[in-house]
Amino acid sequence: MKRTEPKTTCVVGAQWGDEGKGKIVDLMAKEADVVVRFQGGGNAGHTVVVNGEKFVLHLIPSGILHKSRCIIANGVVVDLIQMLEEIDHLRGRGVAVGKNLILSDRAHVVMPYHKFLDKLAESGSGKIGTTQRGIGPCYADKAARKGVRVADLYNPGFFRARVRAMTEEKNAIMKALYGGGPLDADRIVEEYSGYAERIRPFVADTVPIVNEAVDRGKRVLFEGAQGSMLDIDFGTYPYVTSSNSDACGIPAGTGVPPSKIRRVVGVAKAYCTRVGEGPFPTELLNATGDRLREVGGEYGATTGRPRRCGWFDGVASRYAAMINGTTEMAITKLDVLSGLDEIRFGVGYRLDGKTLDLLPTDTNLLAKVEPVYRTFKGWSEDLSKVIRFADLPGRARIYLQFLERFLKVKVTMISVGADREKIILRT
Ligand code: IMP
């Protein structure tokens, strides 16, 4: 086979998730032959508005709304119930789901005991504020080599033995630590064998499929979930998700080597939000924070939780740009800032009389820092009809140009409303 220069792009979050990646992926998926999810699972919630109709996708790549081939790769943890519900829901709304969706046989399955354990762990002290979708316990079993992979579903003897052993182990843990359970292993086997049959047409080894697409010069789009500051290695540990939720997750999560990743689009809101526990230095616990939440509709797509809101954290997003090798930025929800007298941008942190320009690794220290801000004059114009950068209010342009200089990455896309067409493209 003749190899062509890869035409790969990845879209990753440059904050703590919920940056509006769904809309950017949707826009880019129009031109993508293949769209690949490489990490996370049903904890993600990607909202896409098409002709005023809202779609919220959790597991299936947003590319399903286009003609792209969609791949749920090996790095994803799959809740089969959720996947089937999502397929039914999409089909019910007239979206074709068939040969255009492929699930990796190496992906790990989120089992009922993972969801139970996630919920039980979150009911006590030391909670992370997870989405309670079983993500952490499933990845923990994967690393402990106690997981169930999609391929295992089709090996009945092995599957039954594994589920029995795991259910016995988890029942003991649930009882001892939380007084919860027990779950019935044989019922789980029966139920999941049924789901296995329903998902069978979608299952394949996705590693050669994605690599072949890359090598043939097909346009392959990697769709990140969550955000870089929630990455298990580089985020605000332990208040993170359990996967590499940035471009670092692509090679391990798909089998596509790092040398083949070309364009890296970092997505950030023009301000910042976070859900769940954990430090958030630029958080606004005041009327401005409440205003951002209401105007920005900042409620979780997966859990409905109100999001914590604050100013753009340049330190966090610059760090994200470094680890992702970001080649361009997409800034979303700029319209939400209209009407504010002044807008702040976090340029550093103060800790014990010193100024820091990097996040301290120790999350306890990060929780103590005071943000250092640069303040910009706000604008009052409605941005929702602006389609050219030059037509943005001067003060909005000044803000974005500062952001570009601070992150050392060009802003090529600016979203000014939820609909597909409300976007400013810059070359
Ligand atoms: P988990 O991924 O459900 O284990 O949750 C771990 C942390 O990641 C929590 O703070 C969640 O709120 C956060 N999180 C997980 N998925 C998302 C997402 O899609 N957007 C924003 N935050 C998320």
Compact description:
This protein has helices at 21-29, 80-92, 112-123, 135-143, 156-178, 185-199, 206-215, 249-254, 287-296, 314-324, 363-366, 394-407; strands spanning 7-13, 34-37, 46-50, 53-57, 69-72, 77-78, 101-104, 108-109, 203-204, 219-223, 263-269, 272-274, 308-310, 312-313, 328-332, 342-351, 354-356, 370-377, 411-415, 423-425.
Description:
It is built from 12 helices and 20 strands. Helices cover 32% and strands 21% of the residues. It has 427 residues and is α/β, with parallel strands linked by helices. The model has no long low-confidence stretch (mean pLDDT 95). Strands 9-7-5-2-10-1-11-15-19-20 form a 10-stranded mixed β-sheet, with helices on both faces. The protein folds into 3 domains: 7-104 and 203-264, 3-Layer(aba) Sandwich (Adenylosuccinate Synthetase, Chain A, domain 1); 108-198, Adenylosuccinate Synthetase, subunit A, domain 2 (Orthogonal Bundle), CATH 1.10.300; 268-425, Adenylosuccinate Synthetase, Chain A, domain 3. Residues 17-18, 43-45, 128-131, 133, 135-136, 225-226, 230, 239, 241-242, 275-276 line the site of inosinic acid. The site of inosinic acid (IMP) has 20 residues, from helix 4.
Tags for this model:
single chain, alpha/beta, Adenylosuccinate Synthetase, Chain A, domain 1, Adenylosuccinate Synthetase, subunit A, domain 2, 3 domains, 4-stranded mixed sheet, binds inosinic acid
The percent range for helix content is 25-40%
- CATH architecture classification name of the largest domain: 3-Layer(aba) Sandwich
Average pLDDT for all residues:
95
Computed over alpha carbons, the radius of gyration is 22 Å
The share of residues in extended strands comes to 15-25%
> What is the tally of helical segments?
12
Question: By helix and strand content, what is the structural category?
Answer: alpha/beta
Order of strands across the main sheet: 9-7-5-2-10-1-11-15-19-20
Kindly report how far apart the N and C termini lie.
33 Å
Uncertain runs with pLDDT below 50, 5 residues or more? none
Q: Please, what is the CATH homologous superfamily of the largest domain?
A: Adenylosuccinate Synthetase, subunit A, domain 1
Assembly classification: single chain
